[in-house]
Amino acid sequence: MSTLIIIDQPPYGSWEGREALDMAFSLAAFDQPVSLLFCGAGVNWLRKGQDAAKVHQKSIERNLSAAPIFGVEALLADSHACDQYGLVETELLDQATITDFGPELTARFDHVAFAG
Amino acid sequence: MISFKTLHILNKPPDHSRFRLCLSAIGPEDGLLLTENGVLAVTRRLGLNPERCFALSPDLEARGLSSQFSKEQTVSFDGMVGLTASAENVISW
Questions:
Q1: Which among A50, A71, A96, B88 could disulfide-bond with A61, CB atoms 3.0 to 4.6 Å apart, if both were Cys?
Q2: What is the ipTM of this complex?
Q3: Residue A102: which of B5, B25, B93 has the nearest Cβ?
């Protein structure tokens, strides 16, 4: 039973994305196959060099670096959104994979869910 | 009754980024059900197969949009249950 959790909200502005991350880590911790897909403004989660100390939050980059340890299968970045936000592969976190969003992608999963 | 690979339930208005994301995820064997603010899309041309596009009638009525959408494609809450049961998968956007 595989799950795809989609994050389409930008980082730091709201808690919805963090809740999505908690959902993904919880599933992975219980050995449920789960992947994360970042779309729209959500691709900004995957940008290297985040330092959130001055907005008094934990760095999402550090949070995401724990994804493989928890067993999250893939961090997927929508290619169209990467183009929109000027992200090339070398600027993305090393664990991230660029992919094309569409029916073929969502069909690979039993469940597709959002937080918020 | 027509069956779907995935039924996409969309409650976001047409200007919402997730609305566009949803449209780009609809495959040829999929269906779309508009609910809540999603029914505002009936005022636009979406270019979707009308046999596979539905809207929830209480939400259309609440917004005064019933006359803008074909009766055959309008579903009640019971009809919504039927649509979800006829789909292999459901994605709530």
A1: A50
A2: 0.72
A3: B25
